Recover the amino acids of this structure.
């Protein structure tokens, strides 16, 4: 237990300041960080699918991750046809490779490969775009989102531990309670509200935008957490990996961002049209 706590403290002492530093630096530094997170997280996801008998094409997923993160960072002017063509190419390559691989369960192998690409690099990679957006529009959405997620997790754990009796999703995550979930949800909104009042969100976001973004973080951050718990429960494991001592795997730390980040991305780029 002492070794576990020491490992957790070490990860917190190095990981949190390191993450904040990379958010501050932005540019290629943050893109490279997210690429590492995506590659490791995708590897963990494929490991979970292998517990169910799948044999995903890891190299297809890893190569796709590099191109997806590069797309979010460089933001080339591609038409919808070109983007759709890239998606088709990945699917076709996966199908052809599986055809000649002589592996069992080809349907499961193909689905696990494509699903991993869609969930990890495609969704989580939007954080690179948001950081580029921060630089372009002189705002701090990335920092606010990350801190709101941390606040949500901490508030949910704290209030859930002391006051949580009625479980919110016992089939997936038996320790999570309604009180904890609501507390985390409110905490996320308060962070966005505070950052808005302090002027950290810049001039392009209204109070209503800040509240909506806080709702997105508080709601979809927890949905991401529950989704990863669902994957782990189905695979019969407690943690997605062991790379972070005391914390489990990469997905255990970044699961809340898997949904919260792309929904934030969609709100800013499609609803606000920025």
């Amino acid at each position: 237990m002492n070794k576990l706590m020491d490992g957790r403290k070490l990860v917190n002492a190095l990981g949190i300041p390191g993450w904040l530093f990379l958010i501050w630096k932005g540019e290629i530094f943050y893109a490279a960080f997210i690429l590492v997170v995506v590659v490791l997280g995708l590897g963990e996801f494929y490991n979970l699918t292998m517990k169910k008998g799948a044999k995903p094409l890891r190299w297809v997923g890893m190569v796709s991750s590099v191109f997806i993160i590069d797309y979010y960072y460089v933001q080339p002017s591609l038409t919808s046809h070109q983007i759709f063509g890239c998606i088709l190419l990945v699917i076709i390559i996966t199908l052809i490779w599986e055809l000649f691989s002589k592996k069992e369960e080809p349907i499961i192998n193909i689905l696990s490969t494509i699903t991993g690409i869609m969930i990890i690099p495609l969704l989580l990679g939007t954080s690179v775009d948001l950081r580029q957006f921060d630089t372009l529009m002189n705002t701090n959405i990335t920092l606010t989102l990350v801190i709101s997620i941390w606040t949500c997790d901490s508030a949910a754990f704290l209030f859930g531990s002391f006051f949580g009796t009625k479980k919110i999703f016992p089939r997936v995550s038996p320790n999570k309670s309604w009180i904890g979930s609501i507390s985390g949800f409110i905490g996320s909104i308060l962070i966005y509200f505070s950052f808005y009042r302090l002027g950290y969100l810049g001039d392009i976001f209204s109070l209503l935008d800040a509240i909506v973004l806080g709702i997105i973080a508080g709601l979809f951050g927890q949905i991401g957490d529950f989704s990863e718990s669902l994957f782990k429960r189905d695979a019969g494991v407690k943690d997605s990996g062991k790379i972070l001592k005391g914390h489990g795997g990469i997905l255990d730390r970044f699961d809340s961002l898997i949904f919260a980040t792309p929904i934030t991305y969609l709100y800013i780029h499609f609803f606000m049209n920025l």
